[in-house]
Amino acid sequence: MAKYDVIVVGGGAMGLSVAYNLLRKGKKVHVLEGDYLNAGSTGRNLGVLKARNPYAIGNGNKDLVKLAKMGLKLNAGLSSETGINTFHKTSGCLILAKDEADLKQLKEYHAHFKSMGLDERELSPAEIHRKWNYIDPDSIISGFYSPSEANAHPFGVVWAYVEAIRKRKAQVEKQNRVSKIEKTSDGYKVTAEKGEYDATEVVVACAERSSELTEQLGHKVPLKPMRKEVLISEPIRPFLGPSLERLSTHFQATQTMRGEIMGTIDWMDPGYDLGESSSEFLEHFADEMVPVIPVLSNLNIIRQWTGICDQTPDDKPAVGKLDEGLYVTCGYNDYGITMAPAVGRLLAKTIINDETDPMLKPFDPLRFK
């Protein structure tokens, strides 16, 4: 049974970032991924990178924004740091208000985000149309724009970390699902489909499945899995400037470097079923998108799929130490791709120093006990 300093359970962006940062500090690390790469939440999202995190307003949102700001900055340098193209682009993001309820909420958020130094500004429909003439000004009443928010391809982020891990002579072992973690006299024994592994420390980074493993050791992290549908169009000439959002409907749309429009809207019911998909989703997305950008009315959609978002009761992630040598990182709703580089760096520092980094203290996973 091979002995490692740290076993990371989960090969999404979050687990890979933790592994990469531990390797940079000289730790002997092994990653166990239960499926193929990008099969989970990382590979099923849009790759929109935002500092303006809308969750937990009034209940620790400032801590989320600080982490998101760090993640946004580190994402921008990930390609040059690893030598692998993550297809990062600073496209900006425009949050739309279509009615007075939207506007009231966004004005409150605007005051909050400005107080934290975020570069958000309100634009009138006419100003928006002048900047992006494909947007119909009659479909909106306002918009809140941040030019520094960005996009990255989730597959690119994963491969950047995987290649960086391989360069450091470590392994990301795919299709090797972990079924059990047991405490031993000098660390942990991890049992997976392809064998047993011995480690001094373990990091559980399995998104909505994380609590299934930590509960075996007496640490329940309350997570609710929420299904979220996503679509992608045929490639068309790249024209879409900023990503578009509407918070009240969970609408989000962006354009890839190849020209595909990717988007999502609504939350589905709680659950794990990745095979469920609906025509209603497509109709809701079209009803939201086409009035804003009428030129897309005849766009052909080539595929839609379902991803899973893991939510905690307070909308903040669970990150940090559960027990001696046992760590977890999960509960990121739909914003984990932004946070991954920051959390990986801070959690690796926490593990090495055996002292929680101040930026992670608000997300203590033991707060639910």
Protein model, in words:
- The structure is a single chain.
- With 369 residues, the chain is an alpha/beta fold.
- It folds into two domains: 3-46 and 155-222 and 313-368, FAD/NAD(P)-binding domain (3-Layer(bba) Sandwich), CATH 3.50.50.60; 93-147 and 224-311, D-Amino Acid Oxidase, subunit A, domain 2 (D-Amino Acid Oxidase, Chain A, domain 2, 2-Layer Sandwich).
- It is built from nine helices and 18 strands.
- Strands 1, 2, 8, 9, 10, 11, 17 and 18 form an eight-stranded mixed beta sheet that branches. It has an eight-stranded mixed beta sheet with strand order 5-6-4-13-14-15-12-16.
- The protein starts with a strand and ends in a 16-residue tail after the last helix.
- The protein has helices spanning 13-24, 61-76, 78-82, 100-115, 125-131, 154-167, 210-214, 279-292, 336-353, and strands at 3-9, 29-32, 48-49, 93-97, 121-123, 142-146, 150-151, 171-173, 178-184, 187-192, 195-204, 224-235, 243-246, 251-255, 260-264, 301-311, 318-323, 326-330.
- α1 (13-24) runs parallel beside α6, α1 runs parallel beside α9 and α2 packs across α9 (336-353).
What key phrases describe this protein's structure?
eight-stranded mixed beta sheet, D-Amino Acid Oxidase, Chain A, domain 2, 2 domains, alpha/beta, single chain, 369 residues, globular, 18 strands, 28% strand, FAD/NAD(P)-binding domain
